Please model this.
Amino acid sequence: MPYFQDIQVFYGLLTGVFDALMKDPQIRRKALDSKLLVRFVYRNPEGEFWVDCRGDEVKVYPGGPGEEMTPDAVMTMELDTAHRFWCGQLNLLGALSSGEIEAEGSMPRLLKMLPVIKPAYDVYKNMLREKGLENLIVEEEEED
Amino acid sequence: MRGFCGKYLLVDLESGSMEERSVGEDVFRKYVGGAGLGAYLMLKEFDPLVDPLSPGAPLMFLDGPLTGTNFPGSGRSSVVALSPLTGLWGECNVGGAFGAAMKLAGLDGVVLTGKAERPVYLWIDGGKAELRDASHLWGLDTYATNERLEEELRGDGGLVRTMQIGPAGEKGVRFANIVNEMGSVAGRCGLGAVMGSKNLKAIAVRGGGKMGYAHPERAREVRKAITQKLENHLLAQTLHEMGTNGALDTGMLSGDIPIRNWSVGEWMEALDTLNSFYYNDHILVKTVGCYACTVRCKRVVRVEEGPYSMEEHAGPEYETVCMMGTNLLNPSLEAVAKANDLCNRLGMDTIAMGSVIALLMEAQERGLLSPSETGLDFSWGNMETALEAIRLTAAREGFGDRMSRGSRALAGELGAPELAVTVRGLDFPAHDPRGFHGYGLGYAVGARGACHLNTTNLLVEGGMASWPEIGLKGPYKGMTSKGKAELTWKCLSVGQLFNSLCMCEFIGAFLSLNDQVEMMRAATGFDWTLEELMECGWRIWYLKRHILNLRGSGRNDDVLPPKALTPTREGTNAGSVPDMELMLGEFYRLAGLDEEGRVPPEKLDIDP
Model:
């Protein structure tokens, strides 16, 4: 069974993560320095989440921006994969190599987002706890 | 010529005699070439028990069956000898174009024994070879030596490719390297000191021949297909745009980076001035590639001004950025570039040199030695001291003589062996087994010591490669030891293969293993299967392991140093250490080693 039945719950978590992260001036600066527009596409359940770092503020669009935009990178994955990623429990390179995450666009530019992603792990897990979803937290797990 | 030339040049530097020795197809079929052929020759033709710096010790420059072809990633070659740093098996896999020139000169390799009476260099021009006086080159740095040789030997017959040592190799620094014309290095195990002990300053080759393929039409098809695959591969594109140092960002995220002599788990701020974005914006001049490579990950850099100014030349790779950067608490990429340039010119391994400096910084902090004893202030991040340490080590002047013996020896002398981060005396590369437990097993059973190229754990466990054709799809979690023995056993075979094919590990990571098989079949005409090649990989490792055993190294040395078994308190790998007992036990069962870590006779597939 997938971690999330309702993608709106995931949208709420991720929006909260970015809201929290952007209160840190250093992280905010690094995100804006990337000047990236990234589209995350999810399956099972379906959905998408956009992160726009091109302007003066980082904007997020749960479900899509509602207008036509051309992203710099698109990353497509199962929502479970995304959840494991934000819990800090996914080998990103391995997921790209094995096809668990399909990526289009500029990987080097995506690397610019890594300093933003690292602190996001803890924020995401705290957000799960705050919402009473700690049972969804993926901690260190053994290989199958 | 179809993949193999079927012969190598044997040079006795003492008498000056040379002869071509033939190598049968059956040998290539079993040991592939490169380092695999080197292991075979070491056992078959030479005494594997000699002192690495004695005249009787062989020094081998060997090609693989793909070297000289136009397949991307195949422009590499092997250097093989007994290591004066570890006292055990030594090998390097080096890029550039030297190996291709050797193949195009009609040779699968050059093997040198003896010691020349005076400094010489070996000049191979097409089918002719001669030893020439090198007294005018002795004392020159590696880049100057290359320039002089190119001037001397330039003619109408095409480019001259060289491999040479610097002053460090001449002086017998135990981690001296061998540098080629592009600033690519046969870096590890101190094989430059072996070359220096033979009074051999350089080898220069002009090819001139034409590479043949057993199946030329098939070779064209395969090349077209893999070139297309590489062009579309996101990680290959990233490697081109960011260089190997692109791994610094992902490494910091995954707990892979050595910091403060392997004592700290995270230093995010270092990314601001050491990562590839800074690199590209501040010091990069252009990208270049090895022979036949379409990815072109190598960097040419320049530092315009300031204390670390340097002329345009080869830039630091990821390993050097870590060992001269994060591991010394040095946030200056310009200082790393200068240290890299100095090590390349003087002819020393940046990993080993950086490791020596790191341990001295920790030793001074702990009060184990003082600036008055060393003549230098080894405070963390003091790069003026680091650069002076490099100069003194290459010259073996003052405290430099003690540094020139390497970190294990130096830490032992200081009464603090725990400060050295080595396996079998070879310093860890910049990949932390606390973040990826299988790396630790790979280091422990690596034929040359702690090495990230001996097995392909770095590619598979680290995430760059996915090879479902041998049951390694991934992605794998780094911080678990469960299942890593089987993963490492397979990665060990592939690592041995890459070092014997003389294939670039990065290109290998981006292709399937069946692509490698196709390249091999098209080049050689052998009807190799993947299963057969995997058997070759294990066969080759057994030979090397047997050489270790003969020299007294087995289970007693399959040990990680204390630093790698002490958890960090911060960062992604906080609290994590590899379970070596679990992994080694499973690995021994898979490999069929006895309790002492010896290779049983039935596993040794070599004629007596």
User: Anything to note?
Assistant: Helices of chain A lie at 7-21, 25-34, 79-86, 92-98, 107-111, 114-130. Chain A is about 45% helix and 20% strand. Chain A touches chain B through 26 residues (CB under 8 Å). The longest strand of chain A covers residues 37-43.
